[in-house]
Amino acid sequence: MNIGITAIKVVIVISVTMLHVAYVVYFERKVIGHMQARLGPMRVGPHGLLQPIADGIKLFFKEDIIPSGADKPIFYIAPVIGVIAVLASLAVIPLWEGFSIADLNIGVLYILALSSVGAYSVILAGWASNSKYSFLGGLRSSAQVISYEIALGLSLVGIMMLSGSANLSDIVRAQSDYPFVLIQPLAFFVFLVSMIAETNRAPFDLPEAESELVAGYFTEYSGMRFGLFFMAEYAAMFIMSAVATVCFLGGWNGPDFWVFSYVPKIAWFLIKVYALIFFYFWIRATLPRYRYDQLMGLGWKLFIPLALVNIGVTGLVKESSNPIVIKL
Amino acid sequence: MPGTYIPLNYLPVLIILIVATLVGLLPLLLGIILRPKRYYPLKLTPYESGNPPVGEPQSKFSVRFYIIAMLFVVFDVEAVFLYPWAVAYDRIGLYGFIEMIIFIFILLIGYIYVWEKKALEWE
Fold first, then answer.
1. A153-211: per-residue pLDDT in tens?
2. CB contact under 8 A, A6 and B86
3. Contact between A131 and B47 using a beta-carbon 8 Å cutoff
4. CA A62 from centroid of its chain's CA atoms
5. Nearest Cβ partner of B46 from A1, A90, A130?
6. Which of A89, A95, A292, B92 gives the lowest tally of CB atoms within 10 Å of its CB?
7. Rounded to an integer, what distance in angstroms lies between the CA atom of residue A94 and that of residue A167?
8. A224, B37: Cβ pair inside 8 Å?
C-alpha cells in the first residue's frame, strides 16, 4: 500500500467534504427559508452563494471566550474530538466501485464506534463549561445519543444478515439487483428516525432546545470552537445519510438502462445522499420538537423492540427459504 | 521482528485520524493570530440569562441518566454479539438461529423487568 497516494486521497476527500458541509448549511437555510415563504440568504454574492465563506471568515475573527471556572484543557479539546470522530468515519464510506479510503471488513462497526466517540465531545463540552445550561444539555444529549445508538445498531443487523458482510462495499455489491430498502422497510424506518436523533437534529434537538437550554452543550462556546461543533454536526448528517444510502438505498448503484447508464456512479451516490439531507431539512421545517420523555420512550419502548422483531423476521424468512438441514 | 502482525488495512485509518486532527486544530491555531483578545471578568462569567450565576453548576444530576448509561452497556453488548452472528448467518443455519433466539429471549426477560421497574419512564 502506498502511503503517499492514501494521504492524497484522504486530503481530497476531507477537503471536498468540508466544502460540502459549508454548502449544506447554505442549502439548509435556503430550503427552510423557501418552506417558510422567505428567500433565505440573498446578500453575499448572487443568491447568497458566498454566504458560507463569509460566515467562515467571520468565525476566524471572533474572540475565543473561555468562561471563568471552566475546565480549560477539556474545554479546549472537546470540539476537536467531535470533528475528529466525524471526519474519521469518512474512511470507510465507499463513494463508487472500489473507492473507499480504508476497505475495512468491519465497516459498520467502525462507523458505530466513531459515533460513540462523538458522544464524548458532547458530554465533555457540557461538563467543562461550568454552566448549568451546558451541563444539562450535555447530559441530555449523551443519554439521547446512547439510547438511539442501540436502535441504530440493531437496525443494521438485518442488512448484514442479507449481505453476509459488515464491509460497506460488499453491502453495496449485494444490492446490485435491488436496494435493501424494499425488503427491509422496517429497518429503514428505524434507521431513518434514529439517525435524526443520533445527530441531534430537529425534531429531536432537545439538547440544544433554545427555548429551554439556550444552546445546550455549546452555550459557552464562541468563535471557531463553536464553528467546529457546527461543522461536526453537519458532517455527521452527511455521514449518517451516506450510511443510510450505502446500507438501504443501494449506494452507487443506479438504474442501468437508456441514458441512465451514462450517469457516473458517484452521481447516484450523491443524489441519494442529498435526498436524505433534504429529508432532514424537510422534517425540521415540518415537525414541532418532541418532549424529552417522549423522545426517550420512543427510543427504548418502540424502536428497540421493532429492530429486534425485524431481526427475528429476517432470520425466519431467510431460514425458511433454505432447505432445512439439522446439523448437530 | 518476524511474525509481528502489522494491520496494513488500518493504515489509512491512522492517516485519516492525523489529517482530521489537523483539520480540527489548524483553524484554532490560525485563529490565535487573527482574533481579538480583550477579556474582562464580566465577559467571562458563565451565561445565566444575564444574572450573576447562582450555585454550583456541576453538583447533582438525575439518577435516570445513570440508569440509562447502564442499560446502554447491556444492550450494546447484545448488539455487538449480534454482529458476528449476522455476518456468519448463511453458514450457521438453523442451529445458530435457534441459539440466537434463546439469547435474545434471555435479554427480553431483562428488558421486561426494566420496563416493569419503570426505569424507562421520564415523568
1. 888 888 888 888 888 888 888 888 778 888 888 888 999 888 888 887 778 776 666 66
2. no
3. yes
4. 28
5. A130
6. B92
7. 10
8. no
When the pLDDT of each residue in chain A is averaged and rounded to a whole number, the result is 82
Please give, rounded to a whole number of angstroms, the shortest distance from the CA of B51 to a CA of chain A.
Answer: 13
- How far is the CA of A154 from the CAs of A2, A230, A309, B76, in angstroms? 36, 28, 10, 9
Residues of chain B contacting A160 with CB distance shorter than 8 Å: 83, 86-87, 89
Q: What domains are defined for chain B?
A: 8-116 (1.20.58)
Task: Tell me whether residues A14 and B27 touch, CB distance under 8 A.
Answer: no
Q: What is the pLDDT of residues A29-79, one digit of tens each?
A: 888 888 888 887 878 878 888 888 888 888 888 888 887 777 888 888 888
Cβ distance B79 to A157 under 8 Å?
A: yes
Q: How confident is the model at residue B67 (pLDDT cuts 50, 70, 90)?
A: confident
Is residue B119 within 8 A of residue B67, CB to CB? The reply is: yes
Ramachandran assignment for A255, one of left (phi > 0), alpha (psi -120 to 50 degrees), beta (any other): beta
Is it the case that residue B121 has pLDDT exceeding 80? Answer: no
User: Which residue of chain A has the CA closest to B24?
Assistant: A80
Q: How confident is the model at residue A6 (pLDDT cuts 50, 70, 90)?
A: confident
Q: Which residue has the higher pLDDT, A138 or B45?
A: A138
**Best of A130, A191, A206 to mutate (most B CBs within 10 Å, chain B):** A130
Give residue B1's pLDDT band: very low, low, confident or very high (50, 70, 90).
Answer: low
Boundaries of every domain in chain A: 65-312
